[in-house]
Amino acid sequence: MAPGTAPARRPAGWAFPASLVATALIAGGAGAGIALFVTHSSTSVPKAVGLPGTATGTSGAGGMTGLDVGAIAARVDQATVDITAVGPQIGQDAGTGMVISRSGLVLTNNHVIEGSTQISAQINGSGPMFSASVLGTSPSADVALLQLYGSKHWIAVAIGTSRPPAVGDQVIAVGNALDLPGPETVTSGIISGIGRTVTIDDPLSGAQENLSGMLQTSAAISSGNSGGPLVNSRGQVIGMTTAAASSTEPGETAPDVGFAIPVSTALDIAHQVETGKPSASVDIGPAAATGLALTTVACADGFDGCLPLGFGESDEAPIGGLGIYQAPISTGAVVAGVDEGSPAAGSGLRVGDVITNFDGHVVTSPEQVTALVATLKVGDEVTVTWVGQNGTHQSGRFQLVQGPNL
After folding, report:
1. Are both 270 and 317 inside the same structural domain?
2. Which of 278, 335, 368, 398 could, after both became Cys, cross-link 284 (CB 3.0–4.6 A)?
3. Is the same domain home to 183 and 295?
4. In this structure, are 206 and 294 located in the same domain?
């Protein structure tokens, strides 16, 4: 996403106490802020294991000079994809992925595709768009495994396997920074820390996750880089870019602090997905979705810096001729969009309705609905109670749909 455009993803403004916080860009297309607390950890980085059909190699030694960034990027670019994820709750989001097998398996961050109903990918920001589906995810580890369609001969990245990364190793980050058109953005730096633990408060799922064993890098990371390869001096992937940090305190900055998930961690999850065996932390197949876009009452009413519900970005036309939206009640999850033809649309839910109960649980925020849906499966039927714009109380039932899907 280009600088100055509105976020298509996560709302900003959520933070830990100021004394503990760095604000990170979970580098999806939104460019939104994410609160995190970085600590030291003794977690070691295990060796990576190559998937069948994946090129492997040896990690380069730390402290090397004369890094040929252009030559390395040229090799990595052909196995790096720009990801576009679309869904009613996220709008359009952008991120990065890396092809890890010649059969078209792609690693990316879960937050890049979370909440989407359609995914497409483009090699190195040019050429045809390929469709993709989700094979499995680990929301707690922020890892997703996708399958690309449309070609029989995918080029895979090389994976560094000889030793764990070390502080001082030179690295290059490749990715779809700011969703800019054209080839991938390339930045270079060093591994500036290992074994970091990052605690993330995610407003989309309402959950707080700990990402441990993270690599810290000085390579510049921007929104849109999420899911992209962090490679060593030999052009072999050692990590998956996930977040960039900057201080929330005035006068304090951290422009050269970014974080990447070790590729070994991501590949372990990919292997589990390939076996088709779900666990408490790994989901197989696409996640369930409501087909609804939800927002808070304050946002829908135009507070918290949000555009009032019912006003378009250009024509400012109120929905249904009602004028500026005013929620009928003060708490709940406001319906900001409904997928046309979805089971939710058939239930009678309309834009402007406020959900107060979802599947037997009282609802005071959209994050609660997202968290509840995360515990359910595609095809599960749920009962929803809401208050219409005219103040009437209604209820209905509908099935959860597949999302992401083709």
Report:
1. no
2. 278
3. no
4. no
